[in-house]
């Protein structure tokens, strides 16, 4: 693992600490999970953009239909749209 030092506004740091505490996880775990979810959303958006550029959603729907429709093991990993 790598270490990153961040300078955050006090209010943002307090919000992050509060949310992490409410979820019963460390601030580090909260930030790692948040970054991971952001990257998953960006990948999905990239796939959608590429499908739109090809002027067809057939390929996108084919890929998405290949993904199993199961609930994630960890409820925190769920992405609702």
Protein architecture, described:
- The model has no long low-confidence stretch (mean pLDDT 86).
- The longest helix is centred in the middle third of the chain and has 27 residues, at 27-53.
- It is built from three helices and no strands.
- It is elongated and about 45 Å long.
- It is mainly α and 81 residues long.
- The two termini are 31 Å apart.
Low-confidence parts: none
Radius of gyration: 17 Å
In percent, how much strand structure appears in the residues? under 5%
How much helix is in the residues? 55-70%
Our measurement of the CA-to-CA distance between the termini, rounded to an integer number of angstroms, reads 31 Å
- Helical segment tally? 3
Mean pLDDT: 86
* Global geometry: elongated
> What is the helix/strand order?
HHH
Q: What's the total number of strands?
A: 0
Biggest sheet character: none
Structural class designation: mainly alpha
Give the SSE map.
Elements: H1 10-23, H2 27-53, H3 58-66
Helix pairs in contact: 1-2
Quick description:
The protein is built from 3 helices and no strands.
Notable traits:
single chain, 81 residues, mainly alpha, 3 helices, 62% helix, 0% strand
